[in-house]
Amino acid sequence: DIVMTQSPLSLPATPGEPASISCRSSQSLLHSNGYKYLDWYLQKPGQSPQILIYLGSNRASGAPDRFSGSGSGTDFTLKISRVEAEDVGIYYCMQSLQAPITFGQGTRLEIK
Amino acid sequence: EVQLVESGGDLVQPGGSLRLSCAASGFTFSNHWMRWVRQTPGKGLEWLATIKTDGSEKNYVDSVKGRFTISRDNAENSLYLQMNSLRAEDTGLYYCARVASSGERYLDFWGQGTLVTVSS
């Protein structure tokens, strides 16, 4: 199974300041088709998870442009250019390169 | 508007069974692969099962293989999860989710979840 490791697990963030979350996979998520099967989801308090970034770096429809994703085969980063109060919640990375699909442990972002 | 509405969650004794349903609307259900994902305090988000558009392909996480069965009825725009031999560790919030496309694989819509509690 591919193990997904996120850091940090807790992220106190200041409004207006940047923030970033790391996600590492135990093996490359690069498919032979050129896609990197790594997605980022945000679960806001009391809500279901929602897609932010797919295939490593593609912003999902409706996701604010302050969110961006980058990364190589095993190391990925979610960046928030300027944190806003509505960004609080738990961020998860997920790999779908191969079954079983696996998630990171989650990173809880809170506002300082 | 895309909607996924889960139902069927309940309190059940260990060893019991439940059938979860997910009613889909606002899109062509038969065009999308679908998944079940659960959320538990102990393991966070856990993928459980995936089913192809026509139901011809299914796969499962090892922990539920042989106990859970994913299925769909495209005529009824519904997804199901039959859960047998339930254990305490199956307690959690169960989500159905739509796969955006077979090529991109991400989950673009999630339901609100249905709660399963396994306890005597």
Task: Give a written overview of the molecule.
The complex is a heterodimer of chains A (112) and B (120). Chain A is mainly beta and 112 residues long. Helices cover 0% and strands 47% of the residues of chain A. Chain A has no helices and 11 strands. In chain A, strands 2, 4, 5, 6, 9, 10 and 11 form a 7-stranded mixed sheet that branches. Chain A has a 4-stranded antiparallel sheet with strand order 1-3-8-7, with no helix packed on it. Chain B is globular, with a radius of gyration of 13 Å. The relative contact order of chain B is 0.31. By secondary structure, chain B is mainly β. The interface between A and B is medium-sized, with 22 and 21 residues.
Quick summary:
Chain A is mostly beta strands and 112 residues long. Chain A has no helices and 11 strands. The model of chain A has no long low-confidence stretch (mean pLDDT 97).
Note the run of SSEs of chain A as H and E: EEEEEEEEEEE
Q: Which two chains touch over the largest interface?
A: A-B, 22 and 21 residues
Average residue-wise pLDDT of chain A: 97
The portion of residues assigned to helices of chain B is under 10%
Order of helices and strands of chain B: EEEEEEEEEEE
| Relative helix content of chain A | under 10%
Shape of chain B: globular
Q: Main β-sheet of chain A: number of strands, strand sense, barrel status? A: 7 strands, mixed
Low-confidence stretches of chain B: none
Total count of helical runs of at least 4 residues of chain B: 0
Instruction: Work out the oligomeric state of the chains in this entry.
Output: heterodimer
Query: Could you tell me the number of beta strands of chain A?
Result: 11
Give the distance, in angstroms, between the N- and C-terminal Cα atoms of chain B: 40 Å
**Biggest sheet of chain B, in brief?**
7 strands, mixed
Give the overall pLDDT of chain B as a whole number. 96
Structural class of chain B: mainly beta
